[in-house]
Amino acid sequence: MIRGIIVKQLTKAARLRGPGNVAGVLRAAAALAPQITIKHNYSSKAQPKLTSELYPSVKRNPNYKKLANEDIQFFQSILTENEILQANDKEDLAFYNEDWMRKYRGQSKIVLKPKSVEKISQILKYCNEQKIAVVPQGGNTGLVGGSVPVFDEVVLSVSNLNEIRNFDPVSGILKCDAGVILENADNFLAEHGYIFPLDLGAKGSCHVGGVVACNAGGLRLLRYGSLHGSVLGLEVVLPNGDILNSMHSLRKDNTGYDLKQLFIGSEGTIGIITGVSILTPPRPKAFNVSFLAVNSYEDVQKVFVKAKKELLEILSAFEFMDDKSQQLTKHHLAGVPHPFEESYPFYILIETSGSNKDHDDEKLEKFLESAMEDGLVVDGVVAQDETELRNLWQWRELIPESSQCQGGVYKYDVSLPLKHLYSLVEAANARLSEAALLGDAPKPVIQAVGYGHVGDGNLHLNVAVREYNKQVEKALEPFVYEFVSSKNGSISAEHGLGFQKKNYIGYTKNPQEIKMIKDLKTHFDPNGILNPYKYI
Ligand code: FAD
Ligand code: MLT
Ligand code: ZN
């Protein structure tokens, strides 16, 4: 058992720093709450405003055909009754028209949920010929307004394509339909001793195809790398209905352009991903999670460097959170005890995973002991079992929901050089305070909080608001993007461009790059039917 040893050793470590400094003793993460699940809050809130009303400068493209009876008859000719949802007196298709943040609301009157790749192909061929705009949709957990229509686009959900196709236990290569829910894919792999090489808070709803379409990063990119590395092949239905079969399972293949890469992160703009072939690593046998308190962002960076060097191959996640993010989460989880009674300026969640528990425990103990001796870590808890481990993770994974649930959230997901990572949160707070937008009601902003994947140089700045408010948006955009650009960062580290950042890509990509992206879009989708008003 790690618990006794750690408490003993770190009590010693704390004493080394001076008598009476018992707050520094690393404790076991006892008496934590049961697991909390991340959910959609659709029923609890007033309906969001229509995107077209909130952003009146975006006009419906008149080249797109408005859906007519003959189009519906065509869909009915190839789909069964339960593959088509139509808006009527009782059904407004809210689940498909509204995004997870409840920031964007489209006006689609029809959702198609085909059960086969061939049907998707027939639908796209028809829509392309008729110039009917289509929004590909997975689990609808995207965070940039890319997954929902802006006007009356047809929603094409891949949720009915949800079969595991094949798994090779020797190579670890999984082939599955795009609509398989990420958590289901991971549970399937767990039975075979493997793990999906991506994990994120929305795993219970998002799809394998959706995460590939977004090139999602998630909580363990530090260990498993980007999907650009682990995805080996894709099956994609192109806007003209052609089915691109590129479901390869080779780790090495240097014959021609690597076509699948174009679709990874293309956010539904050049094709609908219907199948994914992905290399999965063996599932670690031992996991440890520790939740640590530190006094400054400087110390977060020092602990990161130390963790990389000393935990080395067993380090699988390194996440940081500021105190304000934890205040929001405490408010959301009213009554659930936080790992620490006191507040500290910053928190770090470190996950280790490996094949030998004793070895990992020993490494982690040594690391924590020395981090406390150095005075970098001022308090900490270590999970003692699976439940505690999950509960420690919840204080990190529930920040998105906690930021959104009091009315809304403006989200910025940026890559920055590590030394500048937190300065964006400070700059945003200063700007919102100067503009008198931040504070108690009736001021619109509740908190501007920072957290993220330090290991990947990825900061999440969440500005929690009482309701969506144009003044707040104007204070933040393009201010945030200018800040990021001035530090040579990226305005999207992992959530993508979607509707939110369509007009801001120039802060990260140069004109030549933007032209090439536009040319590719036109090449694949000359009629622009796929996911219009987004991305580029
Ligand atoms: P959707 O939201 O339905 O769609 C997202 C985009 O992809 C849209 O543009 C859509 O048109 C397109 N798309 C979807 N499916 C397909 C398809 N089959 N073919 C072509 N295009 C398609 N992201 C991270 O990177 N890291 C995180 O840690 C992370 N954590 C999250 C935590 C929470 C609580 C939430 C709500 C979101 C989080 N995200 C994170 C955002 C992330 O982008 C999504 O969760 C996920 O990648 C989207 O998958 P989805 O199936 O829900 O896709
Ligand atoms: C996260 O890291 O929690 C995700 O990217 C989602 C978010 O920031 O909202
Ligand atoms: Zn993230």
Structure characterization notes:
The radius of gyration is 24 Å and the shape is globular. 49% of the residues are buried. A hairpin with a 5-residue loop joins strand 8 and strand 9. Helix content is 33%, strand content 19%. It folds into 3 domains: 143 residues, Alpha-Beta Plaits; 283 residues, 2-Layer Sandwich (Uridine Diphospho-n-acetylenolpyruvylglucosamine Reductase, domain 3), CATH 3.30.465; 95 residues, 2-Layer Sandwich (Alpha-Beta Plaits). With 536 residues, it is an alpha+beta fold. The strands form 3 sheets. An 8-stranded mixed sheet has the order 1-14-11-13-12-16-17-15, sandwiched between helices. Strands 6-7-10-8-9 form a 5-stranded antiparallel sheet. Strands 2-3-5-4 form a 4-stranded mixed sheet, covered by helices on one side. The protein binds flavin-adenine dinucleotide (FAD), D-malate and zinc ion. Zinc ion (ZN) binds next to loops. Flavin-adenine dinucleotide binds next to strand 4, helix 7 and strand 10. It catalyses: (R)-malate + A = oxaloacetate + AH2; (R)-2-hydroxyglutarate + pyruvate = (R)-lactate + 2-oxoglutarate; (R)-lactate + 2 Fe(III)-[cytochrome c] = 2 Fe(II)-[cytochrome c] + pyruvate + 2 H(+). This is D-2-hydroxyglutarate dehydrogenase, mitochondrial. Keywords: FAD, Flavoprotein, Metal-binding, Mitochondrion, Oxidoreductase, Transit peptide, Zinc.
